[in-house]
Amino acid sequence: MGLMDGKTVLVFGVANKNSIAWGISRKLHAEGAEIALSYATPKLESRVRGLGEQIGSTFIEPCDVSSDEEIERLFAAYEERYEKLDGLVHSIGYAPREDMGGPFRDVSREGFRIALDISAYSLIPLTRHSMPLMRDGGSVIALSYYAAEKVVPAYNVMAVAKAALECEVRYLAAELGTRGIRVNAISAGPIRTLAATGIDNFKSLHGVAREIAPLRRDITTEDVGNTALWLMSDLGAATTGDTIYADGGYHSLGVTIPDSLKPDWLTFPE
């Protein structure tokens, strides 16, 4: 018996085998879930279909989440195949590359609009269309990052989008709780994904997190998948409106000092 037996989950955001959305999909499938996939652009189709075949996905559809018509089309297609929906995964983030680097004060109006529309607003219509299908309750998960709370160099407009996303999670959770629908965010540590390539100096951010975080190791898509399994399954039945961290404890730190710069009395024995 798997924790997700008999449940169907619709996952947005798989781009390749390194995607956080793919790590979540594999974990939920391993516990018995049927996974329906949606990808962002036509150039991703062959790659996503290849991954979907590995977990037996038979629903693999494109969706430009900046289009209401595309979202409606996707959910209409979903309803033709499935009677209900148990889970929704929103692992979507995009901002024009030129608005991710350089001074934050130079972020363009159009870049700001695009980032907030695709990365944050999209959670609202996706959840709204999921509601009628979650007849027995359900779980919605959005993927966030610590830059929603504190300044992370070069994250810029995407940090604002993630802050908006986490706020949406709380409002949606408050509204949908009486329907038995839980809404949470996972704030994952730095992971080498396709989206991460658009962040200036990501390699340095990744290395610093590994050196400073209490667990002193890289965070993997499997780590995030395990967290998603808890929130998506009945194990998370009492949790909603929260941002759950899967970052090795990095978020718990105040002043951060690399081990190489710490005095002996601050260096804890292995």
SSE arrangement:
Elements: E1 8-12, H1 20-30, E2 34-39, H2 45-54, E3 60-62, H3 68-81, E4 87-90, H4 109-121, H5 123-130, E5 138-144, H6 156-176, E6 181-188, H7 202-212, H8 221-232, E7 243-246
Helix pairs in contact: 1-8, 3-5, 4-6
Describe it for me?
37% of the residues lie in helices and 14% in strands. With 270 residues, it is of the alpha/beta class. The chain has a single domain (8-266), classed as Rossmann fold (3-Layer(aba) Sandwich), CATH 3.40.50.720. α1 packs across α8, α3 runs parallel beside α5 and α4 packs parallel to α6 (156-176). It is globular and about 55 Å long.
Poorly predicted spans: none
**CATH superfamily membership:** NAD(P)-binding Rossmann-like Domain
| Number of domain units | 1
Helix percentage: 25-40%
List keywords for this structure.
270 residues; alpha/beta; Rossmann fold; 8 helices; 7 strands; 37% helix; 14% strand
Task: Summarize the structure in short.
The chain is α/β, with parallel strands linked by helices and 270 residues long. The chain is built from eight helices and seven strands.
